User: Fold this.
Amino acid sequence: MKSTLHISKNSIDQCIEKIIINEKIDGSVIGPSVYSMNCFAPIYEHVNKNKLPIIVPKFPLIYSNIDKLKFTTSGQRFLVFGGGSLIDFVKVCAKRDEIYLTVLLSSISNDGFSSNFSSLKPDEKSYNQSYPSKAPQSVYACLPLLTKHMPHKFWVSALGELLSKLNVLEDLKVDNKVKEFDQTPFYQIERFIKKYTKRNENSLIEIIKQLYSFSLLMKNDSSWCSRSEHEFEKLYADSKMSHGQLVLMGALVAMKIRCIYKLPDLYERLLYYCRKLEISLELKQGFDTIIESNTYKRMKKLSSVRPERFGLWNLVDSTTVDWKMIIKQIIKEL
Assistant:
């Protein structure tokens, strides 16, 4: 059963009241970072008024900690309010404990909120891996909450996640295991970019809808939405940059390499889109950080991160690339 998306223009107070009543919520799981945010106050008031338990995980949201969160009564429905890592973690627990989930988005940093898979680190030192999980039955996007309280970096993350799909499309085209697939969600990206207005409510609605459509593609795994650009993200997941910013940086890197190796690429178009969406500065700052910290050497590992997920790094040996030169060129061209 796929998740149902609800986009609400009602106040945070009205939205949470509707969720608790209509979804018959039995409890809530709240991310520790949003627990102290101003937008949580009306949510807490309604949860507390209805005498619903509040769970705030205070441990790293990695797969090895999965037994630290248990739901004792199957069939109950819990509200999840937090970021992508919290949602992914609770989805795995929901599958194990046979409960139902309703998600209230605190940000729109990635496209995995409605999928049957979760991306988590097995432990503190490993790259993220995909785990089977249980998609929420309902996902709510409260527009007043997102427009007022979502930090700018999550707008950048959402736009980055969306633009990175252009790289996914190129990888899918060269994967011999992929015969025919619906390319419609990929081609809708350009239509969105043409109409985009910075921090505009209509643009926000369209971003949410597009990320939701990609989330629904992940029926059996994340291969329709995650390819060579995510290998870059895995190498830099310990940075302070958002997931979406990292996968877009990974997409720029992959497109630049395609351009150099004379493979089909959308590098110039991707650069134009970054300028059009006014996120070039954040990307330059991200690449500058990699140069200044000398961590560009990590990119030698790109071909070995996830070779089973076919993409560019199966065609190009990342150990042979002068990554410092590539990153400096991208910074200049942004």
Observations:
- Residues 153-333 form a domain with the Dehydroquinate synthase-like, alpha domain fold (CATH 1.20.1090.10).
